[in-house]
Structure formats: C-alpha cells, structure tokens
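Task 17 of the worksheet. Students: predict the tertiary structure of the chain below and write it out as structure tokens. Keep your answer in the requested format; marks are given for formatting as well as content.
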Amino acid sequence: MRTLPTGSTGSVRSIRSVLASALRSPVLFSVAATLLAGVLLLAGTGADPFTAYGAVLSGSLGPDGIGATLTTGTSVLGMALALAVPLRAGLINLGGDGQLVLGGLAATVTALYTPLPAPLTVAVSLLAGMAAGAAYAVLAAVCEIRLGVPLLVSSLLLSYPAVSFASYMARYPLKEPGSGLPQTRRLPEGVELPALGSTTVTVGLLLVVAAAGVHFFVDSRTSAGYEVRMTGLGPRFAAYAGVDRGRLTRRLMGASGAVSGLVGAIGVLSFPHRFIDGALTAPGYTWTGLTAALLAAAAPVGTALAALFFTVLQVGGLSMERATEVPRELTQVLQALVIVLLASRSGMTRRAGRRKGETETYDESNDVNANENENENVKAA
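Model answer:
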C-alpha cells in the first residue's frame, strides 16, 4: 500500500483544516444560506433560480456589465472602506452620507473657482473633498468626547444638515442658469478624472484601491493598526494598556471622513462632471458599504470582497429583472438577509460558548468539592 510523503500528508491536513474552518465560518454560512433562500424565493415566484443567478453574473461581470460594476464598485468599495476604518475599533460611523456630499460639494466649489491648470485643479479638488469629509466626521467625534453624545447618534444626526446644505447650494447659489434640474454648473473643460480606456471607469477606482492598500498595511503592519484592533476586541483592556480613546476616535473618524469625502469628490469629477442633488446619496452607497464592512467584521481584505459581492448583486439585479421578470429589489432583500443570518449565527455561537463555559465551570467545581470531601475523609480516618 502506497503512503503519501510526510510533507504531502501535512499539506493535506492543512487543506482539510482550512476547509473545516471555512465550513464553520459564520460569514460563509450566512452567504450560502442567503443564496439558498434566494433560490426558494425565486422558485416560489415561478422563476428559474439558475436563470436568475446566471443573469446576475452575466449582467454584472459579463462584457456589457463589467464597466458598470467597476464604476459602481468604486463608490461601494470606497464607502465600505470608510466605514470599516472606525468599525475595526468598534466605532460605528453612520454619517457617511453627510461626509460624502460635503466632499463632493467641496470638490465642486474648488474645481469651479480655482484658477489653476486642470491637472492641479483636479488634485486640489480631491484634497478639498477629503478635508471637508474629515472635518465633518471629526465634529461627530468631538460631540461624543466633549458633549457625551454617542457617536452612533451624533454621526447620524449630523448627516441630515449636511445633505440639506448641499441640496440648498445645488438648487440656489451654485445652480446652473437656465436648468430645471437641481445641479451645479459643469466643471471647467479638462477638470475631470481620466477614464481607463473607453469605459466610464475612471482613475478614481485606482485611488480607492490605493486607499484600501494603505488601510491593509496600517491595519496589519503598524502599531497604530494593532491599537485599533485591540480596542475593537477589548476597549477596557486597551484603555488599561494606555490607549487614549478620545484621540483614537478623532483619528479614526478623521480617516473615515476623508475616505468618504474622497468618494464624493470622485463622483463629482467623473461623469457627469458636476454636483447633482441626490446623485451621491440615492444609490445607497453608504448603507451598502456599511453592510459590506459588517459582513467582513471590518477586515480589510474581507471588506473588499464583500463590497464586490454586494456590487455584483446590485448591478446584476437589473439583468435578473429583465431575464426573469423578478423585481431587482430581491437583491436588496438578499443583502439584508445576509446580515440578519450573520447576526443570528454569531449570537448562537456566543450563547453556545457561554453554555459550554458554564458547564466546564460546573464540572470543575464538582471536582473541587469531591477532592475536598476526600481529603476530609482521609483526615477523619
């Protein structure tokens, strides 16, 4: 009988271990269960699930849909990254919409009124968008640190006046003369992000990917990233170890707002090269990005993969609707179902762990009592 070499045996065991851990993964379970639920929903409506899922893939990753996927994915990945940065430390930033529109508005004003050559104007506009988003996000952090308003509340509530202010600016002071739409004037000629080939995808995708690379490096290779991860795992332990929670909150919210502002600036400097009221918030990039960050537990690589997954669902939903006459809102239901199942699986895992710990504690206490009784019997004898 032939036997595998020692190295091959170790490789097989490692592969089996990876597969076993993947099968136990709550994320993989949630995605698989969601896709199965989608099959049942599609079958219940009389549609062919294989045709529907095939239409989603071909409509988003096929030759005719890959451009739209990359264009939409630029904003989804950017917002997922922006919200994953503070979420890694257990901080939830719900003000992505406000930081997004202020970044787009700041980039628009800078591009319209900066008397510099077009390439420099583009660079300055991107920086202005990042600065506006970062400043507004830090304001939410200050509200928590100085005024005691929870970050979850302050970031969400500050988003509304920002969106309203941007809407006012697009409808009145910056509105294009003679236009019936709430939009600003078109940016000057040449003030735009270069396109990648003949598609609608711009250099903005490369900027977002670069930001994701920086986040991955900081998270995994620096002491600052270690502090963030330890704060997310145990805030009290991190505070005992000397981590300044207030300073960390301001820093993370500033980075989060800067990325959100960058996404807004990219949206303005790409087609249609102007700020349109509601164009940045209507697609729901913030909430899709937050869903992706939650699914991946804010891990850099996992967040990028989750953002791609949700982008495929979002873009391919229209093709599914055409192929099966099933409303594309089904893809939104699937996105929500992933998070619900993930939360349920994680909760069940924690409860099972607590029950196991209580059982072990009970067994240990019984062993201790038995030993004490035995010692007493020996002394009595």
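Marker's comment: Residues 5 and 300 are 37 Å apart (CA to CA). The chain has a mean pLDDT of 87.
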